[in-house]
Protein backbone atom coordinates (compact mmCIF):
# COMPACT_ATOMS: atom_id res chain seq x y z
CA UNK A 1 0.00 0.00 0.00
CA UNK A 2 1.35 3.44 -0.95
CA UNK A 3 2.20 5.93 1.80
CA UNK A 4 1.72 9.68 2.02
CA UNK A 5 4.52 11.30 0.04
CA UNK A 6 6.27 13.01 2.96
CA UNK A 7 6.25 9.84 5.06
CA UNK A 8 7.56 7.81 2.14
CA UNK A 9 10.45 10.22 1.52
CA UNK A 10 11.27 10.26 5.24
CA UNK A 11 11.42 6.45 5.16
CA UNK A 12 13.93 6.68 2.31
CA UNK A 13 16.11 8.90 4.51
CA UNK A 14 15.13 12.39 3.37
CA UNK A 15 15.29 14.91 6.21
CA UNK A 16 14.24 18.07 4.36
CA UNK A 17 10.61 17.46 3.40
CA UNK A 18 9.62 20.96 2.28
CA UNK A 19 8.92 22.04 -1.33
CA UNK A 20 11.65 24.71 -1.39
CA UNK A 21 14.07 22.72 0.73
CA UNK A 22 16.81 24.34 2.78
CA UNK A 23 16.86 27.49 0.62
CA UNK A 24 13.28 28.43 1.53
CA UNK A 25 13.67 27.47 5.19
CA UNK A 26 16.87 29.52 5.45
CA UNK A 27 15.02 32.53 4.02
CA UNK A 28 12.30 32.16 6.64
CA UNK A 29 14.89 31.95 9.39
CA UNK A 30 16.64 35.08 8.11
CA UNK A 31 13.31 36.94 8.02
CA UNK A 32 12.43 35.80 11.54
CA UNK A 33 15.15 37.60 13.44
CA UNK A 34 15.29 34.72 15.93
CA UNK A 35 16.87 35.13 19.35
CA UNK A 36 16.75 33.33 22.70
CA UNK A 37 14.42 36.04 24.04
CA UNK A 38 11.64 35.23 21.56
CA UNK A 39 8.96 32.65 22.15
CA UNK A 40 8.52 30.37 19.13
CA UNK A 41 5.74 28.03 18.00
CA UNK A 42 6.28 25.59 15.15
CA UNK A 43 3.09 24.02 13.79
CA UNK A 44 3.37 20.72 11.88
CA UNK A 45 6.95 20.23 13.05
CA UNK A 46 7.03 16.67 11.68
CA UNK A 47 10.37 15.14 12.74
CA UNK A 48 11.65 18.37 14.25
CA UNK A 49 14.34 19.31 11.70
CA UNK A 50 13.62 23.06 11.72
CA UNK A 51 12.93 23.29 15.46
CA UNK A 52 16.21 21.54 16.23
CA UNK A 53 18.13 23.86 13.90
CA UNK A 54 16.58 26.95 15.52
CA UNK A 55 17.39 25.72 19.02
CA UNK A 56 20.98 24.94 18.05
CA UNK A 57 21.61 28.23 16.26
CA UNK A 58 19.80 30.69 18.52
CA UNK A 59 19.24 28.94 21.85
CA UNK A 60 15.56 29.90 21.72
CA UNK A 61 12.81 27.99 23.49
CA UNK A 62 10.38 26.40 21.07
CA UNK A 63 7.00 24.75 21.34
CA UNK A 64 6.70 22.32 18.42
CA UNK A 65 3.39 20.62 17.62
CA UNK A 66 2.14 17.99 15.21
CA UNK A 67 -0.76 15.55 14.92
CA UNK A 68 1.51 12.61 14.04
CA UNK A 69 2.48 10.89 17.28
CA UNK A 70 5.15 8.74 15.62
CA UNK A 71 6.83 11.77 14.05
CA UNK A 72 6.83 13.51 17.43
CA UNK A 73 8.60 10.55 19.05
CA UNK A 74 11.27 10.67 16.36
CA UNK A 75 11.57 14.44 16.87
CA UNK A 76 12.02 14.08 20.64
CA UNK A 77 14.81 11.53 20.20
CA UNK A 78 16.52 13.65 17.55
CA UNK A 79 16.37 16.76 19.76
CA UNK A 80 17.87 14.86 22.67
CA UNK A 81 20.65 13.49 20.45
CA UNK A 82 21.35 17.02 19.18
CA UNK A 83 21.62 18.28 22.76
CA UNK A 84 18.63 20.64 22.57
CA UNK A 85 15.91 18.49 24.11
CA UNK A 86 15.68 20.91 27.03
CA UNK A 87 14.86 23.81 24.67
CA UNK A 88 12.05 22.20 22.65
CA UNK A 89 8.68 21.09 23.99
CA UNK A 90 7.03 18.67 21.58
CA UNK A 91 3.26 18.37 21.88
CA UNK A 92 0.38 16.86 19.95
CA UNK A 93 -2.01 19.63 18.90
CA UNK A 94 -4.50 20.57 16.18
CA UNK A 95 -3.48 23.60 14.10
CA UNK A 96 -7.10 24.76 13.91
CA UNK A 97 -7.57 24.68 17.68
CA UNK A 98 -4.28 25.37 19.39
CA UNK A 99 -4.22 24.88 23.20
CA UNK A 100 -2.48 28.20 23.87
CA UNK A 101 -3.53 31.59 25.19
CA UNK A 102 -4.07 34.60 22.94
CA UNK A 103 -0.90 36.57 22.15
CA UNK A 104 1.45 33.86 23.45
CA UNK A 105 4.16 33.74 20.76
CA UNK A 106 6.48 36.14 18.96
CA UNK A 107 6.84 33.88 15.92
CA UNK A 108 4.78 31.05 14.43
CA UNK A 109 6.45 28.91 11.77
CA UNK A 110 4.44 26.48 9.63
CA UNK A 111 6.00 24.69 6.66
CA UNK A 112 4.33 22.49 4.02
CA UNK A 113 1.08 21.97 5.91
CA UNK A 114 -1.32 24.61 4.60
CA UNK A 115 -0.96 23.09 1.12
CA UNK A 116 -2.68 19.98 2.47
CA UNK A 117 -5.73 21.90 3.68
CA UNK A 118 -8.90 22.90 1.84
CA UNK A 119 -9.10 26.61 1.07
CA UNK A 120 -11.39 27.48 3.99
CA UNK A 121 -9.30 25.35 6.33
CA UNK A 122 -6.21 27.31 5.28
CA UNK A 123 -7.87 30.50 6.51
CA UNK A 124 -9.00 28.82 9.72
CA UNK A 125 -5.42 27.76 10.44
CA UNK A 126 -3.78 31.13 9.76
CA UNK A 127 -6.47 32.93 11.78
CA UNK A 128 -5.67 30.61 14.68
CA UNK A 129 -1.99 31.47 14.28
CA UNK A 130 -2.98 35.14 14.31
CA UNK A 131 -4.79 34.59 17.61
CA UNK A 132 -1.77 33.11 19.39
CA UNK A 133 0.69 35.66 17.96
CA UNK A 134 1.58 38.69 20.03
CA UNK A 135 0.80 42.13 18.53
CA UNK A 136 3.43 42.75 15.86
CA UNK A 137 4.21 39.03 15.77
CA UNK A 138 5.36 37.18 12.68
CA UNK A 139 3.97 34.18 10.79
CA UNK A 140 6.46 32.30 8.61
CA UNK A 141 5.04 29.84 6.07
CA UNK A 142 6.44 27.67 3.27
CA UNK A 143 4.18 25.87 0.82
CA UNK A 144 3.66 24.58 -2.71
CA UNK A 145 3.13 27.28 -5.34
CA UNK A 146 0.82 26.69 -8.27
CA UNK A 147 2.26 28.71 -11.16
CA UNK A 148 -0.83 28.16 -13.29
CA UNK A 149 -4.35 27.95 -11.88
CA UNK A 150 -5.07 24.49 -13.25
CA UNK A 151 -7.12 21.93 -11.34
CA UNK A 152 -5.46 19.12 -13.31
CA UNK A 153 -2.09 19.90 -11.68
CA UNK A 154 -3.65 19.76 -8.22
CA UNK A 155 -5.16 16.38 -9.04
CA UNK A 156 -1.91 14.96 -10.41
CA UNK A 157 -0.02 16.09 -7.32
CA UNK A 158 -2.65 14.60 -4.98
CA UNK A 159 -2.54 11.26 -6.79
CA UNK A 160 1.25 11.11 -6.83
CA UNK A 161 1.79 11.84 -3.13
CA UNK A 162 -1.39 10.15 -1.85
CA UNK A 163 -2.54 13.26 0.01
CA UNK A 164 -5.39 15.56 -1.03
CA UNK A 165 -3.57 18.85 -1.59
CA UNK A 166 -4.62 22.37 -2.51
CA UNK A 167 -1.67 24.50 -3.66
CA UNK A 168 -2.50 28.08 -4.66
CA UNK A 169 -1.09 30.71 -6.98
CA UNK A 170 0.98 33.52 -5.48
CA UNK A 171 -2.05 35.83 -5.55
CA UNK A 172 -4.10 33.11 -3.88
CA UNK A 173 -1.63 32.60 -1.04
CA UNK A 174 -1.27 36.33 -0.44
CA UNK A 175 -5.05 36.71 -0.42
CA UNK A 176 -5.35 34.06 2.31
CA UNK A 177 -3.01 36.07 4.53
CA UNK A 178 -4.51 39.50 3.87
CA UNK A 179 -8.11 38.31 4.29
CA UNK A 180 -7.14 36.59 7.55
CA UNK A 181 -5.87 39.85 9.03
CA UNK A 182 -2.13 39.91 8.32
CA UNK A 183 -0.22 42.87 6.90
CA UNK A 184 3.15 43.57 5.27
CA UNK A 185 3.35 40.20 3.56
CA UNK A 186 6.83 39.51 2.14
CA UNK A 187 7.25 36.69 -0.40
CA UNK A 188 9.99 34.49 -1.86
CA UNK A 189 9.18 32.09 -4.70
CA UNK A 190 11.30 29.58 -6.57
CA UNK A 191 11.48 26.18 -8.17
CA UNK A 192 10.36 22.98 -6.46
CA UNK A 193 13.52 21.17 -5.33
CA UNK A 194 12.01 18.38 -3.23
CA UNK A 195 12.90 15.58 -5.67
CA UNK A 196 15.34 17.35 -7.98
CA UNK A 197 18.84 15.83 -7.80
CA UNK A 198 20.61 19.17 -7.33
CA UNK A 199 18.08 20.10 -4.66
CA UNK A 200 18.57 16.83 -2.80
CA UNK A 201 22.35 17.24 -2.84
CA UNK A 202 22.01 20.81 -1.50
CA UNK A 203 19.56 19.73 1.21
CA UNK A 204 20.92 16.32 2.19
CA UNK A 205 24.56 16.31 1.09
CA UNK A 206 26.20 13.75 -1.21
CA UNK A 207 26.06 10.85 1.25
CA UNK A 208 22.48 11.59 2.25
CA UNK A 209 21.41 11.76 -1.39
CA UNK A 210 23.21 8.48 -2.16
CA UNK A 211 21.40 6.81 0.74
CA UNK A 212 18.04 8.08 -0.53
CA UNK A 213 18.76 6.83 -4.06
CA UNK A 214 19.83 3.39 -2.83
CA UNK A 215 16.65 3.07 -0.76
CA UNK A 216 14.51 4.36 -3.64
CA UNK A 217 15.87 1.62 -5.91
CA UNK A 218 14.74 -1.16 -3.59
CA UNK A 219 11.95 -3.23 -5.09
CA UNK A 220 9.36 -2.23 -2.48
CA UNK A 221 10.05 1.51 -2.98
CA UNK A 222 10.81 1.80 -6.68
CA UNK A 223 7.27 2.17 -8.04
CA UNK A 224 6.16 4.95 -5.69
CA UNK A 225 9.45 6.82 -6.02
CA UNK A 226 9.28 6.78 -9.83
CA UNK A 227 5.63 7.87 -9.79
CA UNK A 228 6.48 10.89 -7.64
CA UNK A 229 9.68 11.69 -9.54
CA UNK A 230 7.95 11.62 -12.93
CA UNK A 231 5.06 13.78 -11.71
CA UNK A 232 7.39 16.49 -10.36
CA UNK A 233 9.56 16.36 -13.50
CA UNK A 234 6.52 16.63 -15.78
CA UNK A 235 5.12 19.61 -13.86
CA UNK A 236 8.36 21.43 -13.05
CA UNK A 237 7.18 24.52 -14.95
CA UNK A 238 3.82 24.51 -13.17
CA UNK A 239 4.83 23.89 -9.55
CA UNK A 240 7.21 25.74 -7.27
CA UNK A 241 7.54 26.88 -3.67
CA UNK A 242 6.37 30.00 -1.90
CA UNK A 243 7.79 31.24 1.41
CA UNK A 244 5.95 34.06 3.17
CA UNK A 245 6.64 36.35 6.12
CA UNK A 246 3.34 37.88 7.30
CA UNK A 247 2.98 40.28 10.22
CA UNK A 248 0.21 40.70 12.76
CA UNK A 249 -0.71 44.34 13.33
CA UNK A 250 0.90 45.86 16.42
CA UNK A 251 -2.52 47.26 17.34
CA UNK A 252 -4.30 43.90 17.66
What does this structure look like?
- With 252 residues, the protein is α/β, with parallel strands linked by helices.
- It has a single domain (5-245), classed as Rossmann fold, CATH 3.40.50.150.
- It has helices spanning 5-12, 21-32, 49-58, 69-81, 119-132, 151-161, 170-179, 197-216, 219-234, and strands spanning 40-43, 62-66, 88-92, 105-111, 133-146, 182-191, 239-248.
- The chain has a seven-stranded mixed sheet with strand order 3-2-1-4-5-7-6, sandwiched between helices.
- The longest helix has 20 residues, at 197-216.
- The protein is globular and about 55 Å long.
- The chain starts with a helix and ends with a strand.
- 42% of the residues are buried.
- The mean pLDDT is 92.
- This is Demethylrebeccamycin-D-glucose O-methyltransferase.
Amino acid sequence: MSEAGHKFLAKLGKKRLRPGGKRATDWLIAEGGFSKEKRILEVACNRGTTAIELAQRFGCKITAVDMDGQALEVAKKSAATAGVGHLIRFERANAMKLPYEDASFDIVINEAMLTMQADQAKKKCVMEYLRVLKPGGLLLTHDVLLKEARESVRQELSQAIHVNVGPLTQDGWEQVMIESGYRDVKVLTGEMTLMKLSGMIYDEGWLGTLRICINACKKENRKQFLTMYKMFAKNKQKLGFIAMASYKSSNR
